[in-house]
Specification:
heterotetramer; A: alpha+beta; Sufe protein. Chain: A; 4-stranded antiparallel sheet; 4 strands; 15% strand; C: Aspartate Aminotransferase, domain 1; Aspartate Aminotransferase, domain 2; 39% helix; binds pyridoxal-5'-phosphate
Chain lengths: 143, 143, 411, 411
Amino acid sequence: MNAVDEKGLAIASEFEMFDEWMDKYNYLIELGKSLPLIDEKDKTTSNLISGCQSRVWLSANYENGKVYFKGDSDAIITKGIVSVLIRSMDGAGVDDIIASELDWLDNTGLKEHLSPTRSNGLVAMIKQMKLYAMAFKVKYENK
Amino acid sequence: MNAVDEKGLAIASEFEMFDEWMDKYNYLIELGKSLPLIDEKDKTTSNLISGCQSRVWLSANYENGKVYFKGDSDAIITKGIVSVLIRSMDGAGVDDIIASELDWLDNTGLKEHLSPTRSNGLVAMIKQMKLYAMAFKVKYENK
Amino acid sequence: MDLAVMQYSVDKIRADFPILKQMIRKYPLVYFDNGATTQKPVKVIEAVDRYYLTINSNIHRGVHYLSNEATDAFEQARKRVATFINAPESREVIFTKGTTESINLVANSLAGFLLKEGDEVMVTEMEHHANIVPWQMVCERVGAKLKVVPISDSGELLVESLDSLLTERVKIIAFAHVSNVLGTINPVQEICAKAHERGILTLVDGAQGIAHQTVDVQSLGCDFYVFSGHKMYAPMGTGVLWGKASLLESMPPYQGGGEMIDKVSFTGTTYNVIPYKFEAGTPDVGGVIGLMAAIDYLTEIDFGSALEYEEGVMHYAYESLKQIEGLRFIGDAKRRTGVISFILNGAHPYDVGSILDHQGIAVRTGHHCAQPLMDRFAIPGTVRASFSIYNTREEVDKLVAGLKVAANMLL
Amino acid sequence: MDLAVMQYSVDKIRADFPILKQMIRKYPLVYFDNGATTQKPVKVIEAVDRYYLTINSNIHRGVHYLSNEATDAFEQARKRVATFINAPESREVIFTKGTTESINLVANSLAGFLLKEGDEVMVTEMEHHANIVPWQMVCERVGAKLKVVPISDSGELLVESLDSLLTERVKIIAFAHVSNVLGTINPVQEICAKAHERGILTLVDGAQGIAHQTVDVQSLGCDFYVFSGHKMYAPMGTGVLWGKASLLESMPPYQGGGEMIDKVSFTGTTYNVIPYKFEAGTPDVGGVIGLMAAIDYLTEIDFGSALEYEEGVMHYAYESLKQIEGLRFIGDAKRRTGVISFILNGAHPYDVGSILDHQGIAVRTGHHCAQPLMDRFAIPGTVRASFSIYNTREEVDKLVAGLKVAANMLL
Ligand SMILES: Cc1ncc(COP(=O)(O)O)c(C=O)c1O
Ligand SMILES: Cc1ncc(COP(=O)(O)O)c(C=O)c1O
């Protein structure tokens, strides 16, 4: 298993501890609040992922073979999930990000927010994170 | 009751005698064959009533206060019903034709052929017969 | 008759809608998303089943028994719809797959026929995309212009502005009977009168009107009235375009195909009479029969008292929601029905909706396909509770309680 | 597995179609009008009921449970359709209300975009009106010309003629997979190859193909394949447009409304991605779920063996009908399926159909929405028996006996 999914599994197990949806969501909301926020100046349209229900901003940096993400959303639940996704990928290598399968999301009980038809920007965001990794790979590691 | 519907009721009772559809239809087909046929030269487009399933030709004459019809159809069942309708109206006065309600058609067991959606030209033909009567009334009896 | 018998029994009504007994995430379903689509009474479901189990067949021009039965039922449904909206003639009722298709039909049929380069089409700031985009597309095609009637902060059309807006360039004004976001009931008669004085056609988008008002197209005085069956207890995929016969007769067809033609040849094709001219292809016979069953159901339960009851629940909802701190209504028109839109100040509608959902409460959140209206109020979206004849005061209480939970978690 | 178990049991299949037990005018129903619409297996009826009883809701962009369930089911159905026709991607599957709408969609979207003044559209002499009239209307609008591929007396396309007909002015050729009158199976691959060599698009009208062939859009090699659900055991009012993603992506939308947009404002509107760009308004979710159930049913009973069985019955019908004196087949192509058209010399099809109906036998008579084809054969119409996987040899015998009665009465 790649590093992203390993980290993800650990994150998922945090969520599995909650019996009550409310506790889970309160935790998610807390996570959202601790998200490494994207700088206001980086909230540009090119960093915006538009969903009909909520909007997501995402930026990525490449440093010494590792990718670092920052994000934000106007909805706090979406922001919580942005935070979860970033936690799983932040500081990972491009190959791990590209290879990640994210099956552990099933265990978080948040899957419903990640349906392609939910249109909250999250599905597009996952795609975007992988695209960033691929772009960095081509640019900096061109093999 | 007006003269047309009176005659019609008598015609309907002929049909009510049959227990078997086949006998009824054989009779209908016979009636079709004895229809006072429209002259070939009168089979013009203006006398044609177009249905998708079958076509009906109809002509009308006015003589001494009475209306006389001739008709034809390319389908023999349609022709039989044309014959029934003409029998009920032939030689009737314009007012009787206009006032006729044709409820007796219900008793013939042929009603299904007279549905507006059947598109065999028969519904349009009934309308046409009444229109002829109205036109003659205006033209010759203008009151 | 005993007064108690005549009274509206919501318990009896709820028993007609089996889905309302569903448990959602261990909570009994509280369904306040009726503006998107209503649930269907068992009589509607059974009527469609009965169609498929006994007379299913393609209609029109059949020589066989099933085809005639199905055709009769289909044409019966057309009459029933005509009666329901008090249309002068049943041939003015055209079956479509919904409001959206009905509007596209009218817009496209008028394009090039009535609408020419330099002409104007008038819509309002509170329209659903279905009553904006088809006109935009058609205007672009023929070189016409789309103009917009503004609304007030309380969500009412600025009807006075029509006097200057309705110039001679305007060919048609298309507007909602009831706004799907604000609940505003527009003054249809007044607008139609102003339009007709100037020879301008009127199309009323009745998607939200049809389930919350008794509609009489003659007294409304419009030229076209369109609605969706699925928002009035009928199956999905059903809709109606009503239009004045004289207009429909002169308009060119929209889609081409079987049924809508008189005679087809490669040298030239002539078209059928209305309503068939506008009904190309095999229609959703089962759905249309379901629509008839829905009308029968509404008649049977006395639609008028059902609406009165519903208004009562909605009024109760307004009063209850008002008590919630930080809740702000979007839309505050004097005459309202069907939907209540609001935002919890500081909370995103998506978050509110998600937390309500976890308590078994279904509302809709977002822009409700009315982005220009969101822009007008400078909000990303609203939470919308929309009502029906089976909702109860207890459900309103649950909504209020649920919103308090959301406020606690989010604010 | 035991061979007997694997064998196709038509009795078992018939038990899945409750309507087949109907008595018509005291005779057991013999349904040979499948080309117009097939009957629906109880699993399809139940799937739709289950939808309405448990998850009915408007789809896409909902934040609540029912809406998500309904959306998932709807998108599942899209995948199932893609698999059924072997489409490379499910986003290439667009839900419509039928073949007619699918063709209108393509024709209108191409108008002005691909089709310009002076261009040509090619159809064939054997097309259904649904594959003629939309093109006529669009050609008239943009000033293009409709051209026609002729057929032989046996009812086969004169494919050789394509070499001269397919000039550089031709932008698209639209033709039936299977003729709804003649039963002719057209050489789709060959025609598509000829068209593509010249950069011409191809649309295959699969209304009759889908129920009588296993369809693989990739191996057929066409650009668009369209069909109706109701002719393949699914509910009325359902249909599909399949198109190559790259094409659909570049084509402008057809109808405007909710769901098909990205961002709407009065200064400009941008559109959603495929398939949503082409699915304006609330779709018939229940119907689409019924279509999925129909595909599941066909898979479950092994569609391949069902078709083999059906071919057997049809072959038997040909051989039996041949014995009837004065019966003349219309259409005598080498590769045929689905329908058999004929006339009893001297008898009008309407009369023959009516007399069959009185014996409980449902056939279709008339021009079958193919008037140019009737003109080609100089006949007013035909009697058409069309087949399905539940028809039997005994029913064919009844048809033959019924026709003899008709001949006796009429000739
Ligand atoms: C006011 C209004 N117009 C049009 C529509 C579109 O209706 P449909 O999706 O049934 O075509 C809706 C439905 O949301 C609506 O509320
Ligand atoms: C070959 C062909 N094309 C098109 C159609 C039209 O299909 P629908 O009425 O389902 O839109 C039919 C149906 O009769 C057909 O047989």
